[in-house]
Amino acid sequence: MSLPHAILTALLEKPSSGLELTRRFDRSIGYFWSSTHQQIYRELGRLEQAGRIRALPTAAPARGQKKEYEVLPAGREELAAWVALPEDPRPVRDPLLLRMRAAAVIGTNGLDAELRRHLALHERQLAEYQEIENRDFAPPPTTGEGRLRHLVLRGGIDLETFWIGWLTRAIADLDAA
Q1: Reported pTM
Q2: Going along the chain, which residue ranges are E strands?
Q3: Would you say residue 118 has pLDDT above 90?
Q4: Whole-angstrom distance, CA of residue 80 vs CA of residue 174
């Protein structure tokens, strides 16, 4: 996945200003594709220059007025082509897993606290995802678009559930040793 495609997706969902996009990334898209505000603004410029988006005309142009962007046909075509591309899963690169491998060699001093900290973080993230699901997807959506958005959220819920289960077992195994 790439930032231009995440921005095109967000703008197709709703034309937005750069500031609105950064807020939406903080609240939703950022859960699975994070980006800084500076990266978003830079990419908006690139997408506009490439003819994939345009700033909507304003009634009375004023200095410092925020631009609201919409996706042009070339942007929609780019996004559709990208959606259809095959892409292999990425290998897991998690520093916690590497720390555990290192602990097998040098000892587990401090590892228990780090595992418990990660467990708490995943529990909080799961609770946040479940709150979003209860707020935004009850009852479950019946349209294709709503179902796909819900599936993305369910993917996050399932990943957090996996990590909570795995960390709980890892802590129990360390405690038993």
Answers
A1: 0.82
A2: 16-17, 53-55, 68-71
A3: yes
A4: 47
133-168 residue pLDDT tens = 999 999 989 888 899 999 999 999 999 999 999 999
Q: How far apart (Å, rounded) are the C-alpha atoms in residues 166 and 131? A: 22
CA separation for the pair 165, 149 (Å, rounded)? 25
Distance CA 136, CA 102 (A): 42
3-state DSSP assignment of residue 129 = helix
Judged against a pLDDT cut of 90, whether residue 34 lies above it is answered with: no
At 168, which amino acid appears?
T
**Packing angle of the helix pair 73-84, 3-13 (nearest 10 deg):** 120
Q: Residue 57 — φ and ψ, nearest 5°?
A: -65, 145
For 45, the token pair is 């410029």
Pairwise CA distance, residues 142 & 162, whole Å:
27
